[in-house]
Amino acid sequence: MVVGLGTGSTAKHAVDRIAELLRQGKLKDIVGVPTSTKTYDQARSLGIPLSDLDSHPVVDLAIDGADEVDAALNLVKGRGGSLLREKMVESVSKKFIVIVDESKLVKHVGGSGLAMPVEVIPFCWNHSLKRLVNLFAYAGCVGELRKCAENGKPSVTDNGNYVIDLYFERDIGDLDEASDAILRLPGIVEHGMFIGLASSVIVASVSGITIKTK
Ligand code: DER
């Protein structure tokens, strides 16, 4: 089985568990496709066999966290900076299982008031930021370049790009239209809306576990 290995604090636990099951012999014959260099390093240190999309263009199962989950199981991802490789893996996964706690559930994408990340090329990033903000002016959008807490320099993704974090005061409306509009802008690499990709979402709360499926 080809397993997409997600990125973030929640997915880290899933990767640890997969490695434990392999060690116990309860899980066999899998190869992991990591969604970031961070997950690659974690999985490799745990002895999980690894490969990539060039060798395995179809993934049987991907497991990853999310920053937001709406009622239709559309997601916001990428606050950890790995949205591009996550979307590359999860968009070719036969099954994509999302693991979150209940704090991630929102009424609509952007509704948490937290960032909806967009990966952009570094060239004229401020121009890209202004075009993105203008695109979503109707939703009261503001944007900022993501910076490293340690040194205040622009955060650089595994792919050598920058991240613009967008914040919305109001619902942005049709997600497919928003996605198309973003991706038509030159200089934009990918955005953090994962529309229609999740097969199911496992939600942890104090009262237990619930599974949401489409
Ligand atoms: O950055 C990402 O895409 C992560 O998967 C994020 O969406 C969830 O990270 P968390 O599990 O640390 O909250």
Automatic annotation (TrEMBL):
Biochemical pathway: Carbohydrate degradation; pentose phosphate pathway; D-ribose 5-phosphate from D-ribulose 5-phosphate (non-oxidative stage): step 1/1
Pfam families hit by this protein: Rib_5-P_isom_A
A single BP term in Gene Ontology: pentose-phosphate shunt, non-oxidative branch
GO MF term list: ribose-5-phosphate isomerase activity
Keyword Ribosomal protein: no
EC number(s) from the headed UniProt entry: 5.3.1.6
Record keywords: Isomerase
Keyword Isomerase: yes
Family note: Belongs to the ribose 5-phosphate isomerase family.
Name of the protein this chain belongs to: ribose-5-phosphate isomerase
Recorded catalytic activity of this chain's protein: aldehydo-D-ribose 5-phosphate = D-ribulose 5-phosphate
